[in-house]
Specification:
282 residues, alpha/beta, Rossmann fold, nine-stranded mixed beta sheet, two-stranded antiparallel ribbon
């Protein structure tokens, strides 16, 4: 199985992520894919960069799946690093290769097919998206197979999908975000996406929140950056020692976040469909 990871981060943000977590977002996502499907071969493309290209000799049609990462960019900003990613997603749709995306990935896929993205009028959703609830369509959809009637997931986003394209369906929502999961069908392609981050371990989420400490304090999530440091320490400790029920209880975290198989369920469901052959192709 050959998977293309589309790392949506610009170069400076990729390096900050590497400095805090030890891997770029694309490398971290590839590691999650390899943990789920050890035989998968993952290539990474960096379309925020002006000189980005697929690996030599590769075409989109040579991949079994395309996965889009998150990004600190805003898809409604008309700048080259954004336009390249929207155009790449349009090419993915045209290729017919099944695709999946987290957060920014969902937003880019929506815009590439005719939807819109705006800042969330309710503000930032960060840490964990709480009580994500599958829609009627989502309860029977393969993307969310195995999820309960309500669940939490790692997240960090300021923007949301405001309107979906014509051939799309909302699969899950919560109080903060109307489109937490969706399927988009466009041209020859099928995209499954989530606004949250099933790929994030607690340690990766901690690294991101640590990097955002000043902003999170300014926005009122914490009284000051030192409180962010305590929260980050809790996440890292719990990731290293899942027996710390005191920390899990304090932050209201259950197996939907703490069990790796449950946390990454949407990625597992997507890859299983891709491994089945042409099950997701139009």
């Amino acid at each position: 199985m050959r998977v293309l990871i589309v790392d949506g981060y610009p170069a400076d943000a990729r390096e900050r992520h590497r400095a805090g977590f030890g891997m770029t977002p694309g490398e971290a996502y590839a590691a999650v894919v390899k943990a789920i499907a050890p035989a998968a071969a993952c290539d990474i493309v960096l379309p925020a960069d002006a000189d980005a290209q697929l690996p030599a000799g590769a075409e989109l049609s040579s991949y079994h799946a395309v996965i889009l990462t998150g990004s600190p960019l805003h898809v409604y900003h008309d700048e080259p690093s954004v336009r390249r990613q929207v155009e790449l997603m349009r090419a993915v749709y045209d290729s017919g290769v099944p695709s999946f995306g987290s957060c920014w990935g969902l937003q880019v896929a929506a815009v590439a097919a005719g939807g819109t993205v705006t800042p969330n009028p309710l503000g930032r959703e960060v840490g964990f998206a709480r009580r994500i609830t599958p829609s009627e369509a989502g309860r029977g959809h393969a993307l969310l197979a195995g999820r309960p009637a309500a669940f939490d997931a790692p997240c960090v986003h300021l923007d949301v999908v405001a309107s979906l394209p014509a051939e799309a369906v909302v699969l899950a929502s919560n109080r903060m975000t109307g489109v937490q999961a969706a399927e988009i069908r466009h041209r020859r392609g099928v995209f499954w996406g989530v606004q949250y981050h099933p790929e994030f371990s607690l340690t990766e989420l901690a690294a991101i929140m640590d990097r955002m400490a000043d902003a999170l304090a300014e926005e009122g999530f914490f009284r000051d950056p030192s409180e962010v440091a305590g929260y980050v320490a809790d996440l890292r400790t719990l990731d290293a020692d899942r027996s710390r029920r005191d920390i899990a209880w304090r932050h209201g975290l259950d197996e939907q976040v703490l069990d790796e198989r449950q946390r990454t369920l949407e990625i597992r469901n997507f890859l299983a469909r891709c491994l089945a052959g042409d099950a997701m192709r139009q």
